[in-house]
Amino acid sequence: SHPNALDALSQQGLSEKPVRQKREAVGSGGSGGTWEMVSAPAYRRYHDQGKKKGQQQKLRRTKSGRRGDEINEEENDEEVEEEEGGISCNERQREHPFIVTEPGEVARGKKNGIDYLFHLYQLCRDFLIQVQNLAKDRGEKCPTKVTNQVFRYAKKAGATYINKPKMRHYVHCYALHCLDEETSNALRREFKERRENVGAWRQACYKPLVAIAARQGWDVDAIFNANPCLSIWYVPTKLRQLCHAERSAAAVASSSVSISGSALIAGHHLANF
Amino acid sequence: SHPNALDALSQQGLSEKPVRQKREAVGSGGSGGTWEMVSAPAYRRYHDQGKKKGQQQKLRRTKSGRRGDEINEEENDEEVEEEEGGISCNERQREHPFIVTEPGEVARGKKNGIDYLFHLYQLCRDFLIQVQNLAKDRGEKCPTKVTNQVFRYAKKAGATYINKPKMRHYVHCYALHCLDEETSNALRREFKERRENVGAWRQACYKPLVAIAARQGWDVDAIFNANPCLSIWYVPTKLRQLCHAERSAAAVASSSVSISGSALIAGHHLANF
DNA sequence: AGAAGGACCAGTGGTCCGTA
DNA sequence: AGAAGGACCAGTGGTCCGTA
Questions:
Q1: Nearest CA among B93, B63, B91 for reference residue B77
Q2: Which residues make Cβ contacts (< 8 Å) with residue A75, sequence separation at least 6?
């Protein structure tokens, strides 16, 4: 009941393998390092099985490639669009929507699970590291966070399923996973059982995070920075705001306690968040 | 021969006092904490001598004030433009140009000295700290560097003599001052004696910095970050490039040494920078 | 209805170049 | 000529909203 934590790389049309990832056994449930060769839908695969074809990294690139100094510069070798299976696809399909899965569970049907979501954050970290190494080699300034540059790099490297709005949208869910995996797992199980949608689960992830922040002096930035997987992500605005609001409420409450002697208000604030 | 290190706050038209600075005895030569009440040209002073007038911080503001949430929000009290001395001035005068002064020396005539220049970096640090405190209070994201926001804040606080192009222009000079004051002082004396202009002195500041970087593994970013006064400034592009170029040259040279056994090439590179 | 992501936008880092 | 700084510009962080 707890196999390798897998999900479909749901790119329907084509599913490139994330390339040149230094695997690390971080994150979701089971044994690390298996996402690349995952149950990819059999439609079509990027054909570098040979593993050494030229650069081992023949990558797809968006034709728009504006500022293409990132990957390798041979802008010419367009090895795109040979029919092979059925469904030809230049028209990029969207990723399958996420559903709330419990740890280790593979999403059925045209869905993606939460382990896969969290895996994407690991991929971004790997891409960031590559961008950092490039920058260091070239003596350029070196990003410490997942910036636009990193997203651009990821896209050029073929990871078209990574994009900024998505990653930013779920950062705090990943944060909970990094900071308190127990709680994160419990929440997933609970919301799966209740058959809640992803949006509801996502919303619910804020509360335990605020509680963690409360315990650690309300400094979300410090909390993020202290965790190597999290430190590369910007603290989401909404999480920051929630922590601020709750801290203020707590301050008011505790001062009214110390003035009036009544603990009721404080209790109210803490309970009703 | 080594009095308090002073310079004219050279705003000809009006010279506001930098306000609410937590003085710290950092930086240039003599006793800290004297810049505010400095030999300000007697033309006109901002009249809050009373020290407690309302907020103790009635500040001039550029009329353009676009996004005015920074200082205090009473956008209305325009206490500008009453004639008093002679030279009325809405037309902002430029700052007097810098000349190369030795440590502790006050610039004569319509000039500013290098101690004053370095003092401006301290002021920026103070403004940054204020902006940071504001951000923390409000639960907003907190800048770690002197950003546009800080320059805007400084301007609104009346420090019209602080501006981004100027501060960025001389960052590496300040860096040398912070990292090796001995060398910095010696360079100033040398260039003063040679009657070089500021531009020449500024150029000359790069070389000893690159030498410092060489000694410390070429990581300029780490060097900046390790110094509390420097860590708030972006590493100047040109300094980064010089370090990179020199590191590459050194690498080539040393490898050619280890291959050919000749130390001449290495000697050449190091000497000719 | 719920969700993925292209694309927009205000404000950034960086510095050029018209100005004094 | 040498220098100060207004103002511009490419690319950023942030996220909305037209799309599927």
A1: B63
A2: A61, A65, A68
Is pLDDT at B34 greater than 60 in this prediction? no
pLDDT of res. A260: 57
Angle at A249 between CA A248 and CA A253, to 5 degrees: 115
Among partner residues B141, B245, B248, which is closest to A240 by beta-carbon distance? B141
Q: Give the gap in angstroms from C-alpha A141 to the nearest C-alpha of chain B.
A: 8
- Please choose, from the candidates A32, A13, A29, A12, the residue with its C-alpha nearest in 3D space to the C-alpha of residue A21: A32
- Tell me the C-alpha distance between B56 and B218, whole Å: 46
Q: How deeply is B273 buried, as exposed, middle or buried, from its count of CB atoms within 10 A (0-12, 13-18, 19+)? A: middle
A138/B243 touch (CB, cutoff 8 Å), yes or no: no
Residue to test with chain B: of A140, A223, A234, A238, most B Cβ within 10 A: A140
Other CB atoms within 10 A of residue A56 CB: 11
Q: Which residue has the higher pLDDT, A168 or B7?
A: A168
The contacts of residue A117 (CB under 8 Å, 6+ apart) are A98, A170, A173, A174
pLDDT band at B91 (very low <50, low <70, confident <90, very high): low
Distance from C-alpha of B129 to C-alpha of B139, rounded to nearest angstrom: 15
What does the pLDDT read at residue B103? 98
Q: From CA A172, how far away is CA A178, in angstroms rounded?
A: 10
Among residues B78, B79, B61, which one has the least CA distance to residue B70?
A: B61
Is the CB of B163 within 7 Å of strand D?
A: yes
Nearest to B16 by CA among B66, B76, B71: B71
**Predicted pLDDT of residue B175:** 99
CA angle A243/A244/A247 to nearest 5° reads 80
Alpha-carbon gap, residue A146 to B108, rounded angstroms: 50
